[in-house]
Amino acid sequence: MEQIQQLRRITIWGVGLIGGSLGLALKKNGFQGQRIGLGRNINRLANALAHDAVDMITTELSEGLQDTDLIVLCTPVALVPMLAQRIAESVDPQRHRIVLTDVGSTKSVLVKTVETQLQEQRTDALSFVGGHPMAGSHETGVGAAKATLFENATCLLTPTENTDADALALIKNLWEFVGAIPHLLSPETHDLLIGAASHLPHLVASILANTVANVETEDGKALDFTATGFRDSTRIAAGSPDLWTGIFTQNRDVLVSLIDDITENLTAFKTLLQTDNLAEIERVLLDAQITVEKRREN
Q1: DSSP state of 274
Q2: Taking residues 51-62, what's their average pLDDT?
Q3: C-alpha span between 221 and 165 (Å, rounded)
Q4: Chain centroid to CA 294: how far?
């Protein structure tokens, strides 16, 4: 934890749920440096300051970069390359090195793009490490932020052959400091596994919500009769459409393949129903039950 305590400033660009939780967690765990909130909307930044998620706020990139040691991009994934480019163009090449990381849910395209940008900029003053804390909520904004959000949560880090070892160690130390458990994956492996574990479930929940919403008769709408099953199955569909559009498009190839898989499974189940294959129907449901129960035990 000593590396984090040696930092003078940590800049959090985007102080919403994740950024705000990071700021709160840093203070809760005894960070002695200054937490800087950077963003476009001064009212949202003021709200973050009021929630004690940061110590100082600014909408000016130059102020956000001044004397900072670490920048954490807590913005939608689609914005990360653009913001990284702006940072790379603004960093003083004569000053000490700044480490840059993100919290985005996709990595292959993002990491490759940012690393290419830094190589083209030819600056040794900035190092990038891809990151993805596996913690969050369907709620948004700093009002939903929690100092304990990352405790015992997995944080995936996605180094490549271009990743600076010292920068990787610092980002690993950052997430350990706030209670997370770092786990290293390649960007490509990250997108495959998280595509299945997170992106596909969100898509299925959204399609399910829309499908049920379209079922109605003269006697009423299906939505009027939903209960806990619908609520539990569709809760994550309440997430930000803007955020998830960026995630889906950046992980397009993986998601398309997974859609093919689930379509194949649905088609096979449809055949079981049409042929009254009760034994196989029960087997499918039993396999799912076992999978869910084992996951709960862990």
Answers
A1: H
A2: 94
A3: 57
A4: 25
